[in-house]
Design brief:
Radius of gyration: 13 Å
Distance between the termini: 35 Å
Number of strands: 4
Length: about 90
């Protein structure tokens, strides 16, 4: 599939066409001490970036019963076996 047909994700100044890779970068930034990490999405054929997630370890990034823009998706949490010692949103 052509990259122009895929959604694009931005974490910091880096762009990704794979959401899991974008999540991996967000984890790297959080682990490096970034207090807030924003993940943006730009849909195929659109010009504007939209906020997808705003992650902060102190606020909590562990998914609860429902996905939130404040947390990682449950599938990603399980995929990477994340274990941040924070509250569940």
């Amino acid at each position: 599939m052509n990259n122009e047909q895929l959604d694009h994700y931005k974490v910091g100044d880096e762009e990704f066409t794979d959401w899991t890779e974008a999540q991996d970068r967000a984890v790297e930034l959080l682990n490096a001490g970034e207090e807030w990490v924003s993940v943006s999405v730009k849909k195929s054929g659109e010009d504007d970036w939209c906020m997808l997630q705003e992650l902060n370890i102190e606020r909590g990034v562990k998914p609860g019963q429902h996905w939130s823009t404040w947390t990682f998706a449950p599938y990603y949490w399980k995929l990477r076996n994340l274990d941040y010692d924070t509250k569940t949103i």
